[in-house]
Here is the input.
Amino acid sequence: MTHKSILHDEAIANKDEILVKGSAAHRLASVLRVRHGEQIEVRDGLGSAWLGEVIEQGRNGISVRKLRHQSRSNESPLALTLALAYSRSDRMDLVLRQATELGVARVVPFRAARSQYGLQDQQLKQKMLRWRRVLGEALRQSGRMNLPSIEPLPDVPALLARVPEWGCVDADCLRILAWEEERRQELLSLWKEHPHSTKVIVVVGPEGGFSPAEAELFFAADFFSVTLGPRTLRLETAAMALLSVCQLLWGDLARQRNDPGVDPENA
Here is the structure.
């Protein structure tokens, strides 16, 4: 049975009752129209989900009594980070939504030299609120337990400086750059050389591509450049193609993942 669900903004594992407030309470009351005694699912985006019963509705919010823990194992074994150059608002929303559905763990928006869009401090604060709503909606829709983190950065040097902080410091972490100038290396050949990677960082640039100076910075930071085929892809298409193939090769879109003896072309 499918229950109405919400994303709570606090950890819920150690609470007997959950007080749902703000926009989540508004969604329950006005959009989902829950009633007293109705059972709903509450997730916190931190790995916990509980089936609960609505026991009170008032000005302070909606109280939900926890009934039983909901166990679900649909998070990818691949720690996948998407670094994405700023694009138009609707395209960013689309990528965030689909990346969440595809199991990405972290999204890093950044401004590249050729980005046509940028965000000042106040604009970024407003966008972060919107992006978190988009991520939360995608989490509920996809049934995931863990909400992807979103970590905007000002430029490519700042992005590269953060890579070690994300745990990408050893041989099981792969750094991938989707680069329009690459003609030979593609993701399958990279998988054959690195079949056991458990962490992958993928970078997708702006519509105008990366500048030569930025490309050199990525190569100096041990990124592998890959081609995404002979056709020119829009940013959102490139991001989804890259994430989907990474989950197929190293993640959970194939049962025979991480076996160097099995070629995905013949699996």
Remarks:
- The chain has a mean pLDDT of 90.
- The longest strand covers residues 49-58.
